[in-house]
Structures are given as structure tokens and as C-alpha cells.
Amino acid sequence: MWNNLANSTICLLSVQAASFLLPNPPALQALFFPRVFFQGGAAFPYNTLGIRRMAQAAGEPNQPSSPLYNFPKVSIDDGIQKYVLLKASYRTDDGSLPLEQYYVRGRCAAEFHVECATVPIQEMESQGISVDIKGGGRINHNASAKTIRIYGYSMQFGRAEHLLTSKLCQEAFPDHQVEWSNEGY
Q1: How many angstroms separate the CA atoms of 93 and 160, rounded?
Q2: How many angstroms separate the CA atoms of 87 and 165, rounded?
Q3: Residue 134 labeled ligand binder
Q4: Residue range 114-135: average pLDDT?
């Protein structure tokens, strides 16, 4: 009966009203609102957007307002291509330690590895992001077979850390089989 009462009555109350009515608000809020975070009198839904908004409201450095969030982690073509692994750093306005993120950029049309990096670097640097090319290699992306094979190295930038590249590709393409090796050019 209490659950029905809680669901029908307490949920209609605002978070502020519930705080006044309940003897131990944080503990009871967790019972009545299990899919909601409470911070500083504000309620945030228990999902990715809610967590990001909570972090932003708290002023944490990993908030989504960082320009690092403006770029996809992986951008590759369908087919055999050269690729580069980029490490991007952004120093927040408060001067805290820089935020860092890795990105994979590949292009089938690229004759040289630097061609995969030129446009992304220009776009990132225009937003105050520092970018380093950490290496390169080749990617064979077969979208129809849902496979990604990472291998080889760049004559210009050396071998990228293929394990890291494979993890980023697996996150971006969770339904693909991703494999890597240091063999080949």
C-alpha cells in the first residue's frame, strides 16, 4: 500500500515540497525517485543526459560544453584506407589540467597519412584544441560484413597504438567485429 501511495501522491509533489515533507529527504528521495539524481535541490534523470547536466551544473571539468565533445571519436570510410590516431587536449577556462581525448580519422582517398589529419586538426584547433598525431596505419572497414581490421604503420608518423584504435572503433561500431595486428604496411 505504501508503494502505491508513494507512487500516486509523493511523485506528484515537487522535489522541494518532498524535501519539506519527508523527515530524511536524501534517503527517502532515493526510495521514491530511484531513477532520479538529486543535487543541490535540483533533480536530474538517471540517464546520460541527466548525468551530463548534473556535471555541468556542478561545474565539473568533464562537462559536455568542452569542445572535445563536438567531434566524433571515430570517422572512417567503408573500404581500405590510411588512418591516423589523434590526441586532442583542451585546457578549461578555470586553468585546471587539460582534458584529453583520442580520435581516429581515416580516408580511402588519402594518398598520405597527413591527408587524414589535415581537416580534423584545422577544425579542432579553430576551437582552441591542441592536437598531436600519435601515429598511423591502415584500416580495412567492411560495413556490409561488419568487420574492421586495423594494421600497418605510417611512414610519416610511425605506428599508431592499434589496441587503442581498436577500442575506439569498437565503441563507435559495437555491432562490428574489430581486430588488429602490427603486421603489414
Answers
A1: 31
A2: 11
A3: no
A4: 95
Q: Which residue has the cell 581490421?
A: 149
Q: What is the mean pLDDT of residues 103-113?
A: 97
The pLDDT, as a whole number, for residue 52 is: 52
Q: What values do phi and psi take at 111, rounded to 5?
A: -85, -35
Residue pair 173/156 in contact (Cβ under 8 Å)? The answer is: no
> Does residue 113 carry a catalytic annotation?
yes
List, in sequence order, every residue forming a beta bridge with 102; answer none if it has no partner.
87
Among residues 158, 180, 25, the alpha carbon closest in space to that of 10 is found at: 25
pTM, rounded to two decimals: 0.64
Coil vs helix vs strand at 153: coil
> Which of the residues 113, 141, 162, 176 is marked catalytic?
113
Question: Domains of the chain (ranges plus CATH)?
Answer: 68-180 (3.50.20.20)
Confidence (pLDDT) at 164: 98
